[in-house]
Amino acid sequence: MSSRREEKERLRLEREQRDRERQAVATRSRRLKLLGTVLAAAAAVVVIAIIASGSGGSKSNGAAAKGGKVAEVSQVTARFNGIPQNGLVLGNPKAPVTMVEFADLKCPVCREYTLSAFPTLVNRYVRTGKVKMVLQLQHFVGNQNDDSQHAAEMALAVAKQNKLWNFADLFYYNQGDETTTYVTDPFLRRIAAAVPGLQVNQALAARSDPAIAQQLSQSSNEFDTAGFTGTPSFAVGKTGGTLSPINYNSFDVSQFSGPIDKLLGSTAS
Amino acid sequence: MRKVDIAIGVVALVGLGIAGYLTYVHYAGLHPLCLASGGCEKVQSSHWSKLGGIPVATIGLVGYAAILTLLFVPGEVGLAGTALVALTGFGFSVYLTYVELFRVHAVCQWCAASAVLMTALAALSVVRLMTAEERGVYA
């Protein structure tokens, strides 16, 4: 009798053990499926985020140059929001230090500077009122069919409305291939229309103003007089004083912050 | 609360602190404290510092907060949700580290620290997901 009860108890324990093992296997299997689903969902979100993040990366997709959408509008707008602009000048007109940039809007290396060191310099020195920047536009890079010149003329026309830096930044972010001719009126209109508050038709019309051609010629002379041979080139100095060239060998912020800090230190003392 | 939950909570709190600091620095217009010359500032000012106009640091802040919140959600929703956020954060951290090294050519220590924390959170949340029932969560 006792032996039969023991046998039943043993069988019950074995059954329970088997049930537990089956349940554990089922749980593990379900969890693995759940983990697979979670991994797939996470991968999908990451891919979407990467596509969104990389849409205006260091290589221009040039979509705007081919009639597509203008990229990086909100980022550029935010960069200059609240910083005074007057003609070619960005920043506090009474800033103790002035930095002049000689650049060509079709120049890919100028674009590289604008996308790398420039935002940090703006945040650190221009937004804080320590440095004002001046953009002197050149027009010899990729100037087939006067393409580069058309870009510079439009930029100077936009400068009359004190929006030059927004326009130049947007141009760089949407720059096309320098060996192609893409600076057409529709392209310029698309870029200009993405600058908040800019009267686009007024800017397009202002390009024929003789003062624009004179300004371009003056920029070229200043570039030659300074002894520069390529873009971008930079000169920095105390405001109102003599400017010295910045001999950079990369677009690391320190290449620019070094000379600027030295000047700021001497203006403070 | 189990050890793995506590570990996730502690790591997420540290991440919340880092992301909160970077978010504060961004909106206050300050320069982040950085050991290397300009590295953090360069990364923070780069094109990749924002996603859809929102600073990546702020997205990280929301991610860490979500992980902490999901820790207290019972059942598989909480387990899977925590793992989903942590794995997404891990994947995006890998991408951002690549961007720092090969696109921006600067390393931000705060971002690197956050990437390490997200890696730990991803591993911990997977362990939590796979072991929860065995530990008697549903018992």
Give structural notes.
The complex is a heterodimer of chains A (269) and B (139). Chain A is α+β, with helices and mostly antiparallel strands. Chain A has helices spanning 2-53, 73-80, 108-126, 147-159, 164-173, 185-193, 200-206, 210-225, 253-268, and strands spanning 85-86, 89-90, 97-103, 131-137, 233-238, 244-245. Chain A has a six-stranded mixed β-sheet with strand order 1-2-4-3-5-6. In chain A, strand 5 and strand 6 form a beta hairpin. The longest helix of chain B has 30 residues, at 75-104. In chain B, a hairpin with a 2-residue loop joins strand 1 (50-51) and strand 2. Residues 135-139 of chain B have low confidence and may be disordered. The two termini of chain B are 14 Å apart. With 139 residues, chain B is an all-alpha fold. In chain B, helix 1 (3-28) packs antiparallel against helix 5 and helix 3 packs antiparallel against helix 4 (75-104). Chain B has a two-stranded antiparallel ribbon. Chain B contains five helices and two strands; from the N terminus they run ααββααα. Chains A and B meet through helix 1, helix 2, helix 3 and helix 9 of A and helix 2, strand 1, helix 4 and helix 5 of B.
What's the total number of strands of chain A?
Answer: 6
> What is the share of helical residues of chain A?
55-70%
* Helical segment count of chain B: 5
- What sequence of helices (H) and strands (E) makes up the elements of chain A? HHEEEHEHHHHHEEH
Order of helices and strands of chain B: HHEEHHH
Q: Roughly how much helix do the residues of chain B carry, as a percent range?
A: over 70%
- Report the major sheet of chain B: 2 strands, antiparallel
Low-confidence stretches of chain A: none
Tell how many strands the DSSP assignment of chain B holds: 2
Strand order of the largest sheet of chain B: 1-2
Largest interface: A-B, 40 and 35 residues
Helix vs. strand class of chain A = alpha+beta
**In DSSP terms, counting alpha (H) and pi (I) runs of 4 or more, how many helices of chain A?**
9
What is the gyration radius of chain B calculated from CA atoms? Answer: 16 Å
